[in-house]
Every structure is written in structure tokens, then in C-alpha cells.
Amino acid sequence: MARLFRSAPLGGCLILALLGLTACQTPQVVGENPHLPDAVSTAQLRSGDSLNIALLGVPDASTNAVQIDEQGAISLPYIGAVPAAGLTTAELPQRIRQTYLDRKIYTAVEVAVTVTERYVYVGGEVTRAGRIIWTPDLTVTKAIQAAGGFTLYAKESKVSLVRDRATYDINVQLAQKDPRQDPRLMPGDSIRVPRSPF
User: Fold this and answer.
1) Residues 64 and 113 in one domain
2) What are the DSSP calls for 86-139, one per residue?
3) 147 in the same domain as 160
4) What is the value of pTM for the model shown?
5) What tens digit of pLDDT does each residue of 33-62 get?
6) How many whole angstroms separate alpha carbon 192 and alpha carbon 167?
7) Phi/psi zone of residue 145: left (φ > 0), alpha (ψ -120 to 50 degrees), beta?
């Protein structure tokens, strides 16, 4: 009887210890990330795209390295700003050529456009905020890894993704567990990792 009495507190301690362990476990990551609409088209040029524009068949032939600015334009010799965002690499040369002809800068000119680099932007609580070169397989988690990963203060469960002026909240913890929940990025997308209040 005495033996039974002594073991009872030990059993109670074990139960309390087990309850304590279950209380300390990481909570399950549940839910679903939003389904993002595709960007207008990867074929269309966007703000931030870097281009090489060759002007050929003219006395002062040149190749110009330009970037599409926030207003969606590029700047070229003699004609200044030319709207470029929303056009394809087949449409932009025609627009540039026509602008040179309409302003009587040249009577004949050939224009070639090539995209050199396209970017996404990662900011907030990451180790190296800045732009990341876009590739067709780039996802939210890959972009954050390319930016050096989260800081200690990052709120990983509510990362903002901005695409075409719409904002989506992404739970990166969910994306890390399930690759189907890891949205693929498009050129010009912007990711911002907020600071956790804790």
C-alpha cells in the first residue's frame, strides 16, 4: 500500500511533464495561400526590365543599355522618353523606329531590342534587401532565400506580395511545407517581409 502511494506522485509528474511538452510544440501551419492571377504576360515588357536597344543602318549606329522606369518609359538619344511597358520585344522596335521617322531624326533606321535582365524586388526583414534577377522558376521562398533569408524579427506568416498594384498576403511557413502553396513570381513583382511584433 505504501509502495502504491509513493509511485502516485511520480505518475502525476509524468502526466504533467507530457502535458507541458505538448503545450510547447510548434502549432500546426494550416490554411491556404491565395491563388494569384498571372501577370499580364511575361512576353510584355514591364517597369524595371533592362534592355539593349540597337539603332542600325544610320551614320551614328549605337547600342543603348536602358531600363524601363517607374512610368513605363525608356530614354533614347535625340527622342527622349518612349513608352515601353506593356509592349512586347517585337512591338517596341516598331514604336522606336516610327518615333525616329516621325520626328525626322532619320529617314531610315532599323531597331533591335533584347531583354538583358528582369527583376523582382525583396524588402523588409530579409538579410539582403534589393532586387533579384527573375527566372521562370522563381517562387516566393526562392526569392527570400536569394535575399539571404529572413532576419530574426521577420513575420514569416504574413509576407506581402505586390503584383499589378494588388497586394496578396503569403504565409511562407505554409509555402515551405507545401510547394503547391509557394506562388511563382513574375517580373516586376515586389515582396515585403514585415517585422513581427514579438
Assistant:
1) yes
2) T-BTTHHHHHHHHHHHHTTS-SS-EEEEEEEE-EEEEEESBSS-EEEE--TT-B
3) yes
4) 0.68
5) 887 766 555 678 988 899 999 999 999 999
6) 10
7) alpha
Answer yes or no: do 125 and 186 share one domain: yes
CB-based contacts of 104-111 (< 8 A; 24+ apart in sequence): 105/78, 105/79, 106/58, 108/57, 108/58, 109/55, 109/56, 109/57, 109/58, 110/55, 110/56, 110/57, 111/53, 111/54, 111/55, 111/56
Within a domain: 54? yes
Question: With contact defined as beta carbons under 8 Å apart, do 79 and 65 qualify?
Answer: no
Looking at the domain assignment, is residue 43 inside a domain? no
| Nearest-angstrom CA–CA distance, 97 and 108 | 8
Q: What whole-number percentage of the chain has pLDDT above 90? A: 69
CA neighbours closer than 13 Å in the CB half-sphere of residue 112? 8
Q: Three cell numbers at 176?
A: 515551405
Residue 146: give the domain boundaries: 119-193
d(CA 75, CA 78): 9
The DSSP bridge pattern shows strands 119-124 and 190-193 to be parallel
Other Cβ atoms within 10 Å of 144 Cβ, number = 26
Distances (CA, A) of 106 to 56, 61, 74: 11, 11, 19
